[in-house]
Design goal:
Strand 5, helix 22 and strand 6 (about 530-535) form a beta-alpha-beta unit. It contains 28 helices and 14 strands. The relative contact order is 0.10. It is about 60% helix and about 10% strand. The protein is elongated, with a radius of gyration of 33 Å. The chain is α+β, with helices and mostly antiparallel strands. Helix 1 (about 1-30) packs parallel to helix 3 (about 75-90) and helix 4 crosses helix 11 (about 260-285). The protein has four domains: about 1-90 and about 100-375, no CATH class; about 375-435, no CATH class; about 440-580, STAS domain (Transcription Regulator spoIIAA, 2-Layer Sandwich), CATH 3.30.750; about 595-735, Jelly Rolls, CATH 2.60.120. A four-stranded mixed β-sheet has the order 3-4-5-6. Strands 7-14-9-12 form a four-stranded antiparallel β-sheet. Strands 8-13-10-11 form a four-stranded antiparallel β-sheet, with no helix packed on it.
Length: about 725
């Protein structure tokens, strides 16, 4: 058992290391690229140091999951923005030594790591719920854009970055062969998963790109190919940057830059922490292991601070490496430690091979990473804005404008300004939308009842079991902050035994896209456990109804669980509670003939006319009503009991139940439309009483009383339509 566990951890560590190594190099190059080509070697080392040191620090601080802390695109983008602002500052021209620029960048990373650890220490792990999703999406899109732009030059085979002033002149030196290798690397990374599941698509793309590059060099096309990473001297990291940090704080000529460095560090710490928390939530869904997010922030912040002291960039939860480790068998911190040690061994003994990795291959990998970094919700928001009605466009447009504004400010202006705008959006949204608690009151179903009158024993059942129905009456604005609290309260209620939760929106003054996302997530979580979330006080023609439909909430919950008032929602919930306790059977007397849906709309004379052509049959428990393959000649209407449809697939050793019918329902209805054999068997689950309509009797009814036959067929069509709608809702829920 222990040997098997160690082999699984080793496999997870190997898979993680293979994916982390090239990405760490690429992100290191990207992070320091604004400083110039002479810092490329430092960028390679910064990425590798981070992948090794942060992971080992997390393990030493008793991390117990396969989540891999390694360089990530968002952190690389943020650090590149810091480096870019440094280069654009007047202070940069005064630097005499390249090491001074590195010291400033690593000091900012060092400060941000301390701030991250402080966030975790003071319990700020839930900070993410106070930042609206459009702000996070804006940063994510900005990172994707800058990562794409930074990789255009190596994708085209150019030795230097693109200069907007000489763009056309530089593009004339494009190397088509290099571009082709980069494109193939991208395509294989995107689509190799369709060819094989055993080898990660990242590895397929990387090794295929390297192979093509050196194949063309062997064939004599070396002059038409871009450069490779180039030699770099990997030395064991030391703490020589600490002396530079000390100088920044104690030498007066640095003091004018300190406010900017602290602002950059705060921005980096805040956005990196949010990114870590979001990624940690994603990995919880993969590993099914709940983590202490505050403790994770402490581990990550300490790791980033230590890595910066050694000359490394920031790390975060690397989703690609973490998922690869878990899928290969990694379940604990051993796989993380193994991955870090394997990377260390690789760069110690195979640095010459790493130096020969073509830059275009790394660029292709980062191109795909940038493409996947783009926020998909932004595109969905654009589609919904186009399709939305005029009443909802203002709210959707506001979210989209926030995304675009944060993206543009991040790319073309200042990271600090972008963070400030994001925080202002959060503050003003909170002040203007949140006037008081979103939950006006909560009430249980044993206190609040629907207006439907039931027989005494059912009323007694609702009095005893009604607490399993919970109604939340909301008031005020439901948005990113209040919705998260509401969902947390719903989760607690469900954990306490509630099976149906009704969210009444009658007094809701505003509902934003983030609030809708939280409600859909709560619904999906409840459906997985066989429980229900209902929305009430939602009219189709209202602004709220249009907005919920435009945001996909109506489709996600299904229209059958969205009601125009609380009374209808309570009636549905009570029906579900009675169904769960008693089923549709055992209600005593037979289902009244005149109340059967199949005969709805008929007069008393017409009912007697139809009843005279029906045959009343009874079946004992377990008795077969008809078998698969029997001639189909009758329609059955259940007056009492239950019957289940069963099939016997070819080669199977037992029958499979498809559906169970209860009093008031119909089965065998296709017999009125054709005379094909039965496609399944039906068996009585309890003492069964049925009204049976033979096909000959129906044909006679159609000849002599066509109006009655038409009514019968119309009711039958409505029943079939309802079944189809229910099936569609089930299929939709299974697909989502």
């Amino acid at each position: 058992m222990l040997a098997h566990k160690l082999r699984a951890e080793l496999a997870g560590g190997v898979a993680s290391a293979i994916l982390t190594l090239p990405l760490a190099i690429g992100f290191g190059l990207f992070a320091l690229s604004p400083l110039g080509e002479r810092y490329a070697g430092y960028g390679v080392l910064a990425g590798l140091y981070s992948a090794i040191i942060v992971a080992l620090v997390a393990v030493l601080l008793r991390a117990n999951s396969p989540v891999v802390f390694a360089p990530r695109s968002m952190q690389a983008y943020l650090i590149s923005m810091v480096a870019l602002h440094l280069v654009q500052s007047d202070f940069y021209m005064q630097l005499q030594d390249p090491q001074q620029a590195l010291t400033i960048v690593f000091f900012v990373i060092f400060l941000s790591g301390i701030m991250q650890a402080a966030f975790g220490a003071i319990g700020a792990g839930g900070l993410v719920k106070y930042i609206p999703y459009p702000v996070i999406a804006g940063f994510q899109n900005a990172g994707a854009i800058l990562l794409l732009l930074s990789q255009i030059a190596p994708m085209l085979g150019l030795n230097h970055g693109l200069d907007p002033g000489r763009l056309l002149q530089q593009l004339q030196h494009t190397q088509p062969l290099t571009l082709g290798i980069g494109a193939i690397t991208c395509l294989l990374m995107l689509h190799a998963g369709k060819l094989t599941k055993r080898i990660p698509a990242v590895m397929v793309g990387m090794f295929a790109g390297i192979g093509l590059y050196y194949l063309f060099r062997y064939l004599g096309y070396g002059a038409s190919l871009g450069p490779f990473i180039g030699e770099f001297d990997f030395v064991m990291p030391d703490l020589h940057y600490l002396s530079g940090f000390y100088a920044l704080l104690h030498e007066r000529h640095w003091w004018s830059l300190l406010p900017s460095m602290f602002a950059w560090a705060a921005s980096l710490a805040l956005i990196s922490s949010l990114d870590m928390l979001l990624c940690a939530k994603v990995m919880e869904g993969v590993t099914q292991q709940r983590q202490d997010h505050n403790l994770s922030l402490v581990r990550l912040g300490a790791g980033n601070a230590i890595a910066a002291a050694f000359g490394g960039i920031s790390s975060a939860v690397n989703l690609t490496s973490s998922q690869a480790s878990y899928n290969s068998g990694g379940r604990g911190s051993y796989s993380v430690a193994i991955s870090a040690l394997l990377i260390l061994l690789a760069v110690l003994f195979f640095s010459q091979l790493i130096a020969l990795i073509p830059k275009v291959v790394v660029a292709g990998m980062l191109f795909v990473t940038a493409w996947r970094l783009f926020d998909r919700w932004t595109l969905q928001l654009v589609k919904r804005l186009i399709a939305a009605g005029p009443r909802n466009r203002a709210s959707l447009l506001l979210d989209l404008l926030v995304i675009v504004l944060v993206t543009l400010v991040s790319v073309f202006a200042s990271l600090v300004t972008a963070v400030a705008i994001g925080m202002l959006v959060s503050v003003f949204s909170f002040l203007f939308r949140m006037s008081r608690s979103v939950i006006r009151r909560s009430v249980r179903g044993d206190v609040l009842r629907s207006r439907k009158t039931r027989e005494p024993r059912l009323m007694q059942l609702l009095a005893e079991q009604g607490r399993r129905i919970v109604v939340y009456e909301l008031e005020g604005a439901v948005f990113f902050g209040t919705a998260e609290k509401l969902v947390h309260q719903i989760e607690k209620t469900v954990a306490d035994g509630a099976t149906v939760v009704i969210v009444d929106l009658k007094r809701v003054t505003d509902l934003d896209s983030t609030g809708v996302r939280f409600l859909i997530q709560a619904h999906d979580a409840m459906v997985k456990h066989g429980k229900f979330l209902l929305l009430s006080s939602v009219e189709d023609s209202s602004r709220l109804g249009h907005f919920l439909r435009d945001m996909g909430a109506i489709a996600a919950l299904s229209k059958g669980r969205v009601f125009v008032d609380i009374d209808q929602a309570l009636e549905w919930a009570e029906d579900q509670l009675i169904l769960a306790e008693l089923g549709d059977v055992g209600l005593g007397a037979e289902f009244p003939f005149g109340q059967l849906d199949l005969f709805a709309g008929m007069s008393a004379d017409e009912l007697e006319l139809v009843k005279g052509r029906l045959e009343r049959r009874t079946y004992a428990t377990g008795e077969t009503v008809f078998r698969e393959g029997d001639p189909g000649q009758q329609l059955f209407v259940i007056a009492k009991g239950e019957a289940s449809v069963r099939i016997h697939p070819a080669g199977a050793t037992r029958t499979i139940r498809l559906v169970t019918f209860s009093p008031g329902t119909v089965f065998g209805e296709v017999a009125l439309l054709d005379t094909e054999v039965r496609s399944a068997s039906v068996q009585a689950d309890a003492e069964l009483v049925c009204y049976v309509l033979e096909q000959d009797a129906f044909q006679q009814l159609a000849r002599n009383h066509p109006g009655v036959a038409v009514t019968l067929l119309r009711n039958l069509g409505r029943e079939l339509s309802n079944r189809l709608r229910r099936a569609n809702r089930v299929i939709y829920q299974m697909d989502n």
